[in-house]
Structure formats: C-alpha cells, structure tokens
Amino acid sequence: MAFLSSMNIVGSGMTAQQLRLDVISENITNQNTTRTEGGGPYRRKIVVFEAEGGERSPFQQVMARIRGEEASAPGGVRVTEIAEDPSDFKLMYDPTNPDANAEGYVEMPNVDLVKEMADAMAASQAYSANVTAFNVLKQVAAKGLEIGK
C-alpha cells in the first residue's frame, strides 16, 4: 500500500535524523576530550546518509507488475556509516596539561561548536519536517476513514 510506504519513508527520515542528533550530541560532549582509548584526542564524527529504494529498473518494474507489486520501490533514507572527520586537530598551548607535547602544545579535538550547533539546528528542522509529514498522513487516513460513514 502506498499509504504504508509513505509512513515507512517518513519513519526512516525521523530515525536517521535522530541518530544524527545523537552523534552531534556526542561531538559536543567530547569537544574537550584530549585522550581517548584509541590514543590521541577525540575525532569528530559525521553521519552519512544514503537514499533507499526509489525507482526500479525497467526489468524490475515488469517483474513487479507480474507479481502484482507496485512498479516503484518505496524510498526513504538510511544511515550507511558514522564516519570520522579527517580534518586536523587544533593545537592549544598549555604546557601544564599532561597530554602536552615537548613544545607545550596539546592536540584538541577537531570539534567546532558553531558547526555542531548549525548541524543540530538543521537536523532538528529535518526531524520536524518529517513529523509534519507524518501528521499530514495521519489526517489523510482519518479523512479517508470518514468517507465510509
């Protein structure tokens, strides 16, 4: 059913944006972490999305019609990986820090609070847009059920 496919698409977007917000929160929490289990400072993480489903090839469309399925696959989004940001670490002069090198510089995480806040606002807006779409789908379903009265 197209209606349920739409709900799945919106749900995948909400799930992906929630994970993105979780990763942003982790980045902000670790913006001053100079020592990790792997050694060195914390490295910023980035969520990588990929479109899911979408259009099928002509052969797949014919096979779907033969099986009585929809010609196009439901779309959506999925998280393919949580990658580490390869950008350089920031250097801060603090000779009293136990993680300082011989010159007194400490490698700080490559987390920029302004960038993280902007990403958090974008993820929050995308999540809100998915909630709005979900609410519209609920209203359409309710109106459809009222037709039978």
Structure description:
The chain is an alpha+beta fold. It contains 3 helices and 4 strands. It has one domain. It is elongated. 49% of the residues lie in helices and 15% in strands.
Please name the defining characteristics of this protein.
149 residues; alpha+beta
Q: What ranges have pLDDT less than 50 throughout 5 or more consecutive residues?
A: none
Structural class: alpha+beta
Strand order of the largest sheet: 1-2
**Alpha-carbon Rg, integer:** 23 Å
Termini separation comes to 22 Å
| Helix share, percent | 40-55%
Q: Compute the number of helices.
A: 3
| Total tally of structural domains | 1
Please outline the major beta sheet.
2 strands, antiparallel
Order of helices and strands: HEHEEEH
Query: Looking at the structure, what is the overall shape?
Result: elongated
